[in-house]
Amino acid sequence: MATSAAQRFGRRLASSVPRRRFSSSAAAAAATGGSAVQRTQNPSLNLCSAINQALHIALDTDPRSYVFGEDVSFGGVFRCTVGLADRFGKGRVFNTPLCEQGIVGFGIGLAAMGNRAVAEIQFADYIFPAFDQIVNEAAKFRYRSGNQFNCGGLTIRAPYGAVGHGGHYHSQSPEAFFCHVPGIKVVIPRSPSQAKGLLLSCIRDPNPIVFFEPKWLYRLAVEEVPEHDYTLPLSEAEVIREGTDITLVGWGAQLSVMEEACLDAENDGISCELIDLKTLLPWDKETVEASVRKTGRLLLL
Amino acid sequence: MALSRAASSPSRAALLKPLAAAISSSLFRRPISTDTTPITVETSVPFTAHRCEAPSRTVETTAEELVGFFRTMALMRRAEIAADSLYKAKLIRGFCHLYDGQEAVAIGMEAAITKKDCIITAYRDHCIYLGRGGTLLEVFAELMGRQAGCSKGKGGSMHFYKKDAGFYGGHGIVGAQIPLGIGLAFAQKYKKDESVSFALYGDGAANQGQLFEALNMAALWDLPAILVCENNHYGMGTAEWRAAKSPAYYKRGDYVPGLKVDGMDALAVKQACKFAKEHALKNGPIILEMDTYRYHGHSMSDPGSTYRTRDEISGVRQERDPIERIRKLVLSLDLATEKELKDIEKEVRKEVDDAIAQAKESPMPDPSELFTNVYVKGYGVESFGADRKEVRAVLP
């Protein structure tokens, strides 16, 4: 219990202020390698600003990296790509026409030539024209060429998830479709500091990755995010709340709801262990297994 | 008639003069709502053709049709403006893409075709739905997500459908409706009932691969399909020249003939659609590019002024507004007075307000509707407890 109290350090619930804060201290400590100096003075950022920062760093550190997609040049419909075109030029941050299949295919080609291609699909609902390119071209490229070629530099970013008013085509959560495709990775962050570290890892990972960003949290989630360049490990789940009675596994926006549910359950005397999967494919079986051995029950949400 | 009656009763001779004067000014002129004597009008600009002979600039119309155009376009315009206010009042949620400025395309197309012909379009569909015979109540109720809506409140702004009038919607994913439209045309060819399909899309969708796949299929099989590019020059916030190497969308079909039309001139649209229907029934697919403009932004969350100047918008409104064009035509041909047209606008405003009031009364769909119409016969999902025996439930 003492550890979970420490994990909740600095976190306030979304009761008085319409914001969700996440267990920032654990993430920040891990990211900085435990350095005490970074504990203070980290600016508070929301999710889209954290992603923006990650993209700035990615483009800064690798001159052969590119960001492209529909409307990214002016900053994007969610403002995640603000300032990139001004800073890095229209040759590296540019708009594509309205053609998702073309965007991803183009990204695969760019990555096959050794570049880091960060393709944006404006809403995850629109990713389906590109599904063939992702599943059939990107995922199998390394395997079918006997490791001669690969498109590891490709990262596809897409905002996903329901927001309440999105309707049929601005709310979908299609991550499950991609979780059955060997050859790609699927990563979903739960909070701003996680998003920055995970996105940088994804961009630098030598495999094609689909990175879903919970759009509901773009403005709503605010926490302290370290300003420097840091990555978070992929395929490592994180236990964000320790418990003894039941293991809950989730990812992305759902975790904020689950955290509240855990608190409610605690009032009923149930101690929940909450795990953020972070990388859905390939997922961290060991952490989940260890937790279920302890609690004996598993609930996936 | 009244004149002869007045003349035959000499006891009312004193009333004859002012009566006659009143009668001659109103009754002697042709009654505007039913006159069908043909009138010929020239379109604003000639048509530009690609791989076909452009139709003539001279369009035949009637007083009834012109006044009808005015009335319906005024209705559409008023409905869209009302939708804008409802959205700002948070009675309409989600997405709302308004069609004001583009009414001439909807109305001109309807004038050239029948309800047996099919129309399929993207998400800017409110006015096309009205043109196909939809009622204002159904429009506003659907926008507000109520049961009285055309899709029972389950579709929303982007998903209006009208089966009995051959309106196949209403689609949110850009470009996805084009191959559907080609499929409709294929079915019509089998039916052999001289009907055609109009598949509408925008300048943004013109860069989608599926358009070219559909064009190839339609041309290969000689389908009675008319692809209509409603070119309002901006794909969301991107100007056409930024997104397309060739913004001559009527030529993009390459081997498929095309026609460029002034989409703000309802009569030009009518002429082009008539021509296209005849062409498609004989020779297979044709592309119509409607040069049109939307006054609102892409949707209600887009102010519409960050990627174009207000001068441009007001310039188009002054020079090319479709309703003003018809108004000037009607007045210059003396088919109605200014006052009569203003009365029509007032009537239309009242109709819209009444429909909104009625739509507000309609209830939201029952929560059980979340699970209906997913499959043909209910969702039928079974849910089990841990032992799969004790606890069972079937979702509605």
| Strand order, sheet with most strands of chain B | 2-9-10-6-5-4
Classification by helices and strands of chain A: alpha/beta
Q: Which value, in Å, is the CA radius of gyration of chain A?
A: 19 Å
CATH fold-level name of the largest domain in chain B = Rossmann fold
Describe this protein's structure:
- The complex is a heterodimer of chains A (301) and B (396).
- By secondary structure, chain A is an alpha/beta fold.
- Chain A folds into two domains: 44-224, Thiamin diphosphate (ThDP)-binding fold, Pyr/PP domains (Rossmann fold, 3-Layer(aba) Sandwich); 238-300, Rossmann fold.
- Helices cover 35% and strands 18% of the residues of chain A.
- Chain A is built from twelve helices and 13 strands.
- In chain A, the strands form three sheets. Chain A has a seven-stranded mixed β-sheet with strand order 3-2-4-5-7-6-12, sandwiched between helices. Chain A has a four-stranded mixed β-sheet with strand order 9-11-10-13, sandwiched between helices.
- In chain A, helix 4 links the parallel strand 2 and strand 3.
- In chain A, helix 3 runs parallel beside helix 9 (192-204) and helix 5 packs parallel to helix 6.
- Chain B has two domains: 3-365, Thiamin diphosphate (ThDP)-binding fold, Pyr/PP domains (Rossmann fold), CATH 3.40.50; 370-396, no CATH class.
- Chain B has a six-stranded mixed β-sheet with strand order 2-9-10-6-5-4, with helices on both faces. In chain B, strands 1-3 form a two-stranded antiparallel ribbon. In chain B, strands 7-8 form a two-stranded antiparallel sheet.
- Chain B has 396 residues and is an alpha/beta fold.
- In chain B, helix 1 runs antiparallel to helix 2 and helix 3 crosses helix 13.
- Chain B is globular.
- In chain B, a hairpin with a 7-residue loop joins strand 11 and strand 12.
- Classes of the chains: A alpha/beta (301), B alpha/beta (396).
- Chain A binds chain B through residues 70-71, 74, 95, 97-99, 101-102, 125-126, 128-129, 165-170, and chain B through 93-95, 156, 158-159, 172-175, 204-205, 207-210, 235-238, 242-244.
- Chain A: Its cofactor is thiamine diphosphate.
- Chain A: InterPro entries: THDP-binding, Transketo_C/PFOR_II, Transketolase-like_Pyr-bd, Transketolase_C.
- Chain A: It catalyses: N(6)-[(R)-lipoyl]-L-lysyl-[protein] + 3-methyl-2-oxobutanoate + H(+) = N(6)-[(R)-S(8)-2-methylpropanoyldihydrolipoyl]-L-lysyl-[protein] + CO2.
- Chain A: This is 3-methyl-2-oxobutanoate dehydrogenase (2-methylpropanoyl-transferring).
- Chain A: It holds the Pfam family Transketolase_C.
